[in-house]
Amino acid sequence: MNTNQLSKRLALVASFVPRDTVLADIGSDHAYLPCYLTNKGIISKAIAGEVVKGPYDQAVRNVQANGFGDKIDVRLANGLQAIQPTDGVETVTIAGMGGTLIASILESGKDCLAGVKRIIAQPNIYAIAVRQWAVENGFFIVDEEILLEDGKIYEVVVLERGIAHYTPTELLVGPILKEKASAVFHAKWEREMQEWNRVLTALNQAEQTEEIQQKKASIEYHYELVRKVLAT
Ligand code: SAM
């Protein structure tokens, strides 16, 4: 990967970044995303936040090698603590982590989101946690996409400020992804249902404790929600 070419997954995240915005890319790793957006002239300024020293050093090297030191500030920081009030950050990207981790980073740093208008999240799994965090924190879903790359399926959830209510099904599968109903969306949930079936078979063979029964009930509940979506 270089500053001209991103993975399909990161390119999809990049496609939702507004022009001329001040960006904070949280969990930036190599800083590929802010380097690409700077190279294309899409953003004016970026903060690349990274909590682990190795990836942070790599991000610093990439930014320097590309001559973007005056445009991208790489910061060693936990989550949204990378953002200072004077930065004027309007857009946050947070990609390539589980949905639960993304939601916990957003929750524990929400005081740093004061001027933020758009959050572009790319949870690798459990996107429901991001959607739940959004509705509980005055954000709504303005767009969603799903893509297949190297056999893996990724979702991108784009949030802006506003109030919305979603059904349990919409929180699970994504209100906009459900409407778009792409082939990849169908493939994702067919895979998920197969996995749930496999787990249910195993759970049925286990001793039927209360915990096992609760687990089964939860899977059966979600299975039924998804079955209805795929049947429409
Ligand atoms: N965002 C890049 C992408 O999508 O390709 C990198 C994804 S990488 C799998 C996740 C990165 O997030 C790692 O470099 C990890 O160190 C970083 N990370 C995890 N928790 C973090 C946190 N609380 N604050 C900042 N960075 C974090």
State the gist of this model.
By secondary structure, this protein is of the alpha/beta class. It has 9 helices and 7 strands; from the N terminus they run αβαβαββαβαββαααα. It has 2 domains: 8-165, Vaccinia Virus protein VP39 (Rossmann fold), CATH 3.40.50; 186-231, no CATH class.
Please characterize this protein's 3D structure.
The protein is an alpha/beta fold. The protein folds into two domains: 8-165, Vaccinia Virus protein VP39 (Rossmann fold); 186-231, no CATH class. Helix content is 45%, strand content 22%. The chain contains nine helices and seven strands. The protein has a seven-stranded mixed beta sheet, with helices on both faces. Helix 4 runs parallel beside helix 5 (128-136) and helix 8 runs antiparallel to helix 9 (210-231). The longest helix is centred in the C-terminal third of the chain and has 23 residues, at 183-205. It is elongated, with a radius of gyration of 19 Å. The relative contact order is 0.10. Bound molecules: S-adenosylmethionine.
